[in-house]
Write a structure and sequence with these properties.
This protein has about 260 residues and is an alpha+beta fold. The chain has helices at about 20-30, 45-50, 80-85, 90-95, 110-120, 125-140, 145-155, 160-170, 175-190, 215-235, 250-264, and strands spanning about 5-10, 35-40, 65-70, 75. The chain starts with a strand and ends with a helix. Bound molecules: glutathione. It comes from Wickerhamomyces mucosus.
């Protein structure tokens, strides 16, 4: 089997519907890695990954994207994928999959940091309503029609009732949710970030999130800003969100541009 790289993505009404897939896509794009996209409808994720030898997760969802295939190896889960790239850099350069040093990693940004960072964002109170109410109510409509019911059912298994969230979402104060998220992302984040051992003088002071090189931390941040914003904006019902989106800090605006220049 050839060693070409495949990225499995979920077809939808937007470019990349899943934030988790977007992270890996941005990572590949930031590194100029060539890959083929295989589109796997949401309700076919399980059978596709099982056929590629992926073991089910202990709890639902049993199979998730993103996944990549290189030769006869398939890896699912964004953290595992980035870990694989980090640990197999030399081999991947020899195979021509990576072109040079892997952008997205430095010694200070360990896999533990990635996990911390992700949990920190996902569990942050000021982002809670944006992520768990507004976007959850929106994102179902952005999936292809035939995948919407399977998605609703997959969430119900985990106790998340999307139709109920949708009904509640109609009562939400969208401007308020947006303001909380904007304040957090633009101002409070820097103060409240408290990772043990983090060299705070390097955090949000250089060109990128952590120093002057793009790291996985930039990809995680970028996904949160851009991807969440894209999803929110794509829904007509919530088109009233402020023009400037989630960004009003000059540093963040300039940083988004720097990341976009590398990804595009
Ligand atoms: N920890 C996983 C999470 C991935 C994930 O939750 N993917 C979703 C799409 S955003 C999925 O494939 N869900 C399948 C399902 O819920 O059945 C990662 O980072 O890769």
């Amino acid at each position: 089997m050839s060693d070409k790289l495949i990225l499995y993505n979920i077809p939808s009404k937007v470019d990349t519907w899943s934030g988790s897939v977007a992270k890996v896509k941005y990572l590949l794009d930031a590194n100029n890695i060539s890959y083929e996209t295989v589109w796997v409808p949401f309700n076919k994720i399980g059978e596709t990954l099982a056929a590629r030898g992926i073991k089910p997760n202990p709890e639902p969802p049993l199979y998730t994207l993103p996944a990549i295939t290189i030769g006869d190896l398939t890896i699912s889960d964004s953290s595992k994928i980035v870990k694989y790239f980090i640990e197999n850099q030399d081999d991947l350069i020899k195979k021509g999959i990576l072109k040079d040093e892997f952008k997205a990693y430095n010694d200070l940004v360990t896999p533990e940091f990635f996990q911390y960072f992700e949990n920190f964002i996902i569990k942050s109170e000021p982002l809670h309503d944006l992520i768990y109410k507004l976007l959850l109510a929106n994102e179902v409509h952005l999936l292809n029609d035939e995948d919407q019911q399977p998605f609703i059912e997959s969430r119900l298994i985990k106790g998340v009732d999307i139709p109920a969230i949708e009904r509640q979402a109609k009562e939400l104060n969208i401007a308020r949710i947006w303001e909380n998220a904007t304040n957090f992302l633009n101002r409070d984040l820097k103060e409240s970030f408290n990772y043990p051992g983090l060299q705070r003088d390097k955090f949000l002071t250089g060109k990128f999130v952590y120093g002057d090189e793009l790291t996985w931390a930039d990809i995680l941040f970028f996904t949160r800003f851009n991807h969440l914003e894209e999803l929110a904006k794509a829904n007509v019902e919530y088109s009233k969100i402020p023009e400037n989106g989630l960004v009003d800090s000059e540093w963040i605006k300039a940083w988004i541009k720097r990341v976009e220049d590398i990804i595009n």
